[in-house]
Amino acid sequence: KAGVTQTPRYLIKTRGQQVTLSCSPISGHRSVSWYQQTPGQGLQFLFEYFSETQRNKGNFPGRFSGRQFSNSRSEMNVSTLELGDSALYLCASSLVGRIGETQYFGPGTRLLVL
Amino acid sequence: ELKVEQNPLFLSMQEGKNYTIYCNYSTTSDRLYWYRQDPGKSLESLFVLLSNGAVKQEGRLMASLDTKARLSTLHITAAVHDLSATYFCAVDLGERQGAQKLVFGQGTRLTINP
Predict the structure, then answer these.
(1) B78 and B60 Cβ atoms separated by less than 8 Å
(2) What is the mean pLDDT of chain A?
(3) Nearest neighbour of B101 by CB, restricted to A43, A45, A108
(4) Cα B4 from Cα B93, distance rounded (Å)
């Protein structure tokens, strides 16, 4: 079974631009969560989607948004990029995102904002 | 606000030795996860602990959960070089009937020397 895939793997943008990252969950998984990993703040929860609905959201500004499609694939968008948005963005999928389910992480998208 | 604190943050040890990583959290929860991350790689699920007193073992790693003390431990027995990685604990803040929302500790960077 293929794992969680994320595209692109690496991205360089400049301040003020916007970026869209994509995540394809494991086949059959309907819950997708997004995390930001930085050396300073560590791993932080961004949001979680299930059946095209955002069920949980972390403490990030409105510049960070996401969506999920009917095939469970998910995208996250960051508008008006800031230097501090440079990070590894990880998505994780699980069957239905129920408490106690294992989340399987993708390889991540490394974003550099110049 | 939930705080998840790991101790130590850096650990250098010799092969064959035993050691324990501690994960303290600041709110009531009986849902705790352990992950491993190799340099430049994504997160790999190790253990899911879902009740007070839960103990799980895989190879040289054993994890336990004490919900009354709000403490989880990851014990390494007779360490080998292949266990060198960063280990994260995460507490699930999701509502009991709802979706997952993981809050991660800072990570413990473990280096095992021959």
Answers:
(1) yes
(2) 94
(3) A45
(4) 11
